[in-house]
Structure formats: C-alpha cells, structure tokens
Amino acid sequence: MAKAGIVSVAGLVWLLASTAHAQDTGRDFCADRPGKGTPPCVLDAGRFQAELGLADRAWTRGGGTSSDDTSFGTLELRLGLSDRVEGQLSWNAYERIHDKDRASGASATADGVGDLGLALRWSLKNPGGDGVSVALQPFVTAPVGSDQIGDGTWLGGLILPVSLPLNADWSLALSPEVDVRADADGSGRHAGFGGAVGIGRSFGPVALGVELWADRDEDPSGHVTSASFDLTAAWTPPALKDVQLDASAYVGLNHDTPDLELAVGVAKRF
Asked: What is the spatial distance between Cα 72 and Cα 91, in angstroms, rounded to a whole number?
C-alpha cells in the first residue's frame, strides 16, 4: 500500500508536469526546497508549484541505541492566490522509523503516512523574493497521520521568513518560528520555537547554501534542544527554467539531533 501510494504521488506530479502549459512571469523560480529554512517568496497569482521529496533518511546513534528514519514522497503543493498571498498543502506519503537497542537486540518499527499541513504565506515586502523580502506564514497540521508517525492532534504555528541580498551573488536568509506542539504523553500541548539562518550563493544555474538550524521543544516531560549544520545544493537546468533538482545534508550538532540526514528532491512550477 505504501509503495503504491508513493508511485501514485510521483506519477501525479509528473503527469501534471507533462500536460501543463508554460506561463510568463516576472518572478524568478523560487522553491521551498532544499534546507530547513523557509523562503519569503510568493508565487504569482494563478501559478501552481509542486515540490517532491524523493527520499530522505536520518541516522541517529548513541547511548547504546540506534534509530533510522526514512521518508519517501514528501509532497508540497503551492498555489498563488493573489499578488502577495499563496496557499500551501503538504503531506508525507510514507515514513518508516526503526529503533534498536544494540545491547539487547530488541527493536521497534513504526511506519505509515504523515499529517496534513495547511499554510498561507503572506508577503509583507517584495513577494518575488528580490531585494529585502519579508513574509508571514501561519500554518496548521491536521491529524491524518498513522499512529506513531503523526502527532494525533491539531497543531499550528507561525514562521517569519526574511531574505536580504548581501551583494549581486550572496544572500542571507532567516526564518524564525514559534508553534504549538503535542505533549509526548498526549495529554496536552506546549510551545516550541526555533528557526534557521543561512547564506547562499548562485553560480549560474546552481545555488549552494549553508545554514545553521536550531529548535527548542518545551515539552513538560523534558525540554529538548536540537541543532544542525546544513549544506544544500540546487540546480535549475538552463533548458527547464521552471524545474529544480536538489540535494541536502544535515549534520547534527548535539545528541538530541540525528547524526546525519540526507535528502534529495525536485520542484516544478506550472
């Protein structure tokens, strides 16, 4: 069932890509992928964009245990609603988490689909992402995910994406976030906050970036701080101005963060 769902999602994206008609736009192609930060750019009204995480895997080792978290078919759909507002829908088609106690050999596995994310991105300045660009992005997640994969309750938050050009080639991006999360014991909700700061540079059709990401989870059962150093790369083929291929690597900076996470994906604007 999971493999069929992944194939269906990927097939739908590429079917749309093969049948859509190109439209003129004054805005540069701008994808949410790759990286953990959020860009402030907004699609032109009426434009549609699909972004697909083909594969994502994270490895965690330490304390006598190991954990492997693998995802396929993470899909984000974006639609320009007006000159300054876009709507977003996101969903993870399949995730598998495998935990193992290396001393005893005992292991546990959970797999299934993720929750459904809904968001609006409202540009406050420069919706095309050029120059100093600022946006607000409120979001909610609906509890449609499988047991031990989804959060099991409605959650939400707010992101403030910002980008600033440093010169003709370099840019700085910030995306502070605050949100409401589910308690680990399922009894309530608590606050969480964090975000990413990154620097990027374009080399023609190739864009490279580095970022620092941190997150603070205020769960009553125990506060957790996660942090990573991230490397990203994206390529827009010269002959396909509305297509992007990307790869990223996230290196954990403390024991509460996966040691290494690798991801590859694609984005297509219609």
From this structure: 11
